[in-house]
């Protein structure tokens, strides 16, 4: 078949917004019943309004009713909505915020009626002896403002349908809890704790306590509570997991300055120590934005070996770690090249499950068994997120990621991922010497990572003749704590300059049309978008550097955000900006794009969910009003029923098409017509 030529950005593609939206399915969790060894997973389905569907691997059927939504809004981002124990599946339900139990086809609520939806539950842990008692993270919205929401640990009595406090203090408005986990005997419990202004990856602390059971009241209490790892603001300890009744494993970024990576540590015999014989300059976990996303699991009954996920070059790597010797071995398989591995859970001896993403194939729930002294892996797909209804896309249409390490001013290194225009029906442009327009993606967080897994939105654009560039700017995760802290006090400066300088680097100038580069991002990535086209530190010195921009639920007013974002991130900005808004009001003002909307010359598209509590709609309305008052070029679309990110097929489709049409109008067709 002869290949066509057409201007970059105007190629026809079989990857349509309809095809992406209608079959949009993501694997949000996988977990295992430790007694029966049955496997369960949770899918998010856009075609069902973004419902989280809890499925049994054994039956391939839903565990709960067809309208059940296995999702929680603890910390707003949720996670760890469900677990299974001895044939009973427990899950929070997004519809009414109650926790339900399902066994042998019988379903019942195990938390009290809550018609006002005041209480949210997540991260459940069943006591291994008194199995009708579960510990959970409880978020109390009785006084529903970001400043007054209270977090604690509670005990759910599934037989009596009661909830009682376990760990709760007078400072609950400032506190957070995660990962409550019983020891195998049930005599001890561990949990993660942090408080404002820390985030869990900045100063997460691990506690261990003795557990006491009262047979008269059928309740649990704690004593001898000890801080065993982590330190406020300086050392983060995360993901505690018992190897035995007297040994606890976790990740920690404790180390020497400049050589701080989250490696595997252990607590035993009243002291902590690193598991690995020397620091591995790779992070063995991602920042815990959601609950329950464990990066390791034990492989044997004695807890002497673990399967661990580390991050190298922005991609997941699987290691078998020998906890007794401190050695580790990488696990590879030519058939599967996973760039993102999450939700690692043990099934049985040397068998584990996880959710896996690849660069050239849809995501899946996976089972792996390791055999022999070399730990040869046997991977099995349990459930794929591939479409079962749409026609397959042409072979060769996927643009594969090309990781780049860019050296910028001041010898700073910035990590990027490049996707070239790619469509088997096209050989290139019919315009002599034309370079492709580029979409520059800015991830959210900002303590996050843009991964290299298959993303159909990116392929939607590359198959139309666009280049796509992801920037993991200074402050991004999975490159060590020193890289994360490049953004400390510099949010709105380092992220913006890294994006602009990356586009100007020799490597990128040879690949893309830098004068036809659009910048787009969501949430804090949307803030970087707005900052890059408005703030004095960027736009004034380089007016209209970007040809077009898209802000998805982006932040425009830092002063407002400091008061009305949700509790989890309420004080996140203090370190990102260098102080509170009372301490440094000029910084909050000078880095708020809303006050500099008169500088915005770049055509701006704004997309926003009307029910967003993380970045409320006022953040978008105010920047839109400012651009309109100054006769700038802006279009905006607000979506009813959508929160922080798109979950329904209809919104996903509209958002994709609005963005493509915007780039065509603002930078592609205008250039071609010249």
UniProtKB/TrEMBL annotation:
<keyword id="KW-0378">Hydrolase</keyword>
<dbReference type="GO" id="GO:0008236">
    <property type="term" value="F:serine-type peptidase activity"/>
</dbReference>
<dbReference type="Pfam" id="PF00326">
    <property type="entry name" value="Peptidase_S9"/>
</dbReference>
<dbReference type="GO" id="GO:0006508">
    <property type="term" value="P:proteolysis"/>
</dbReference>
<dbReference type="InterPro" id="IPR029058">
    <property type="entry name" value="AB_hydrolase_fold"/>
</dbReference>
<protein>
    <submittedName>
        <fullName>Alpha/Beta hydrolase protein</fullName>
    </submittedName>
</protein>
<dbReference type="InterPro" id="IPR001375">
    <property type="entry name" value="Peptidase_S9_cat"/>
</dbReference>
<dbReference type="InterPro" id="IPR050585">
    <property type="entry name" value="Xaa-Pro_dipeptidyl-ppase/CocE"/>
</dbReference>
<feature type="domain" description="Peptidase S9 prolyl oligopeptidase catalytic">
    <location>
        <begin position="454"/>
        <end position="666"/>
    </location>
</feature>
């Amino acid at each position: 078949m002869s290949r066509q030529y057409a201007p970059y950005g105007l190629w026809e593609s079989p990857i349509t917004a309809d095809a992406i939206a209608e079959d949009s399915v993501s694997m949000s969790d996988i977990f295992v019943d430790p007694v029966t060894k049955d496997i369960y997973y949770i899918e998010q389905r856009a075609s069902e309004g973004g419902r989280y569907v809890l499925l049994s691997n054994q039956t391939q059927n839903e565990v709960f009713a067809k309208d059940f939504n296995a999702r929680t809004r603890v910390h707003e981002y949720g996670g760890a909505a469900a677990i299974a124990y001895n044939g009973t599946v427990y899950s929070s339900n997004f519809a009414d915020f109650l926790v339900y139990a399902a066994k042998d086809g019988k379903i019942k609520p195990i938390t009290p009626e809550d018609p006002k939806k005041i209480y949210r539950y997540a991260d459940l842990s069943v006591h291994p002896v008194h199995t009708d008692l579960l510990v959970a993270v409880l978020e109390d919205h009785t006084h529903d403002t970001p400043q007054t929401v209270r977090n604690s640990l509670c005990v759910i009595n599934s037989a009596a349908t009661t909830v009682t406090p376990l760990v709760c203090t007078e400072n609950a408005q400032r506190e957070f809890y995660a990962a409550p986990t019983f020891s195998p005997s049930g005599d001890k419990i561990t949990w993660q704790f942090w408080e404002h202004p820390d985030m869990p990856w900045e100063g997460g602390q691990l506690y261990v306590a003795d557990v006491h059971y009262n047979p008269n009241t059928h309740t649990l209490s704690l004593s001898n509570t000890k801080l065993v790892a982590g330190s406020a603001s300086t050392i983060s300890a995360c993901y505690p997991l018992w190897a035995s009744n007297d040994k606890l494993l976790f990740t920690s970024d404790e180390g020497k300055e400049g050589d701080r990576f989250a490696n595997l540590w252990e607590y035993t015999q009243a002291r902590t120590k690193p598991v690995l014989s020397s620091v591995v300059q790779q992070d063995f976990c991602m920042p815990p934005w959601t609950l329950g996303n464990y990066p390791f699991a034990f492989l044997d009954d004695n807890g002497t070996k673990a399967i661990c996920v580390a991050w190298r070059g922005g991609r997941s790597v699987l290691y078998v770690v020998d906890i007794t010797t401190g050695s580790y071995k990488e696990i590879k398989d030519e058939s599967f090249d996973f760039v993102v591995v999450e939700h690692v859970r043990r099934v049985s001896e040397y068998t584990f499950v996880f959710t896996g993403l690849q660069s050239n194939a849809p995501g899946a729930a996976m089972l792996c068994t390791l055999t022999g002294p070399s730990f040869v892996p046997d991977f099995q797909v349990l459930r794929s997120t591939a479409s079962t209804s749409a026609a397959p896309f042409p072979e060769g249409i996927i643009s594969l990621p090309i990781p780049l390490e860019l050296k910028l001013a001041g010898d700073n290194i910035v990590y990027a991922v490049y996707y070239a225009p790619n469509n088997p029906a096209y050989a290139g442009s019919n315009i002599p010497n034309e370079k492709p327009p580029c979409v520059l993606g800015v991830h959210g967080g900002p303590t996050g990572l843009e991964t290299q897994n298959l993303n159909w939105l990116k392929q939607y654009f590359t198959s139309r003749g666009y280049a796509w560039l992801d920037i993991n700017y200074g402050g991004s995760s999975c490159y060590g704590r020193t890289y994360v802290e490049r953004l400390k006090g510099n949010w709105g400066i380092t992220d913006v300059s890294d994006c602009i300088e990356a586009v100007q680097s020799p490597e990128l100038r040879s690949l893309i049309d830098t004068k036809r580069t659009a910048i787009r991002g969501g949430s804090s990535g949307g803030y970087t978008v707005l900052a890059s086209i408005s703030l004095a530190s960027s736009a004034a010195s380089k007016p209209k550097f970007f040809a077009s921009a898209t802000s998805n639920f982006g932040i425009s007013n830092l002063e407002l955000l400091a008061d009305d974002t949700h509790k989890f991130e309420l004080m996140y900005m203090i370190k990102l900006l260098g102080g509170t808004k009372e301490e440094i009001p000029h910084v909050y003002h000078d880095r708020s794009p809303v006050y500099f909307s008169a500088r915005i010359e770049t055509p701006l598209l704004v997309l926003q969910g009307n029910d967003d509590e993380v970045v409320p709609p006022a953040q978008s309305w105010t920047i839109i009003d400012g651009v309109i008052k100054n006769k700038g070029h802006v279009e905006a679309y607000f979506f009813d029923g959508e929160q922080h990110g798109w979950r329904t097929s209809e919104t996903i489709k509209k958002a994709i098409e609005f963005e493509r049409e915007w780039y065509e109008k603002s930078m592609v067709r205008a250039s071609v017509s010249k």
